[in-house]
Amino acid sequence: xxERRALAARARYVGSPxxxxxxxxxxxxxxxxxxxxxIGRPGKQTTTVCPLTTNEDRAKATEWLRRAIVAxxxxxxxxxxxxxxxxxxxxxGRLWCGYCVNPAAGEYKGWPxxxxxxxxxxxxxx
Length: 126
Fold this sequence. Notes:
Number of domains: 1
Radius of gyration: 14 Å
Strand order of the largest sheet: 1-7-6-5-4
Shape: globular
Strand content: 15-25%
Low-confidence stretches: none
């Protein structure tokens, strides 16, 4: 538990323009609307929109991320550099997935997910 707390204290939510459709603390969004109203990135899959856009949202998401790490709600993958690649947490009445974008610094982006997605990633046995 002490190791998780130490790890959690260094983790932080930084967000990603690829999951934003409006201005956010990091600047302008980069999620693009595709035909049919779906949101995606050029050459990539459909993107889930993250509604967290304010500095207060960023602080709250960092708090959720840290709680999830302390609770062991994560999944390490081969070659992780100290921080788990994926973290899940429940907040604001929904599930969220955190994805480590900078494993040396413990920086994460995140987006809402559903229970099926959570099970597929976190309940999987390799």
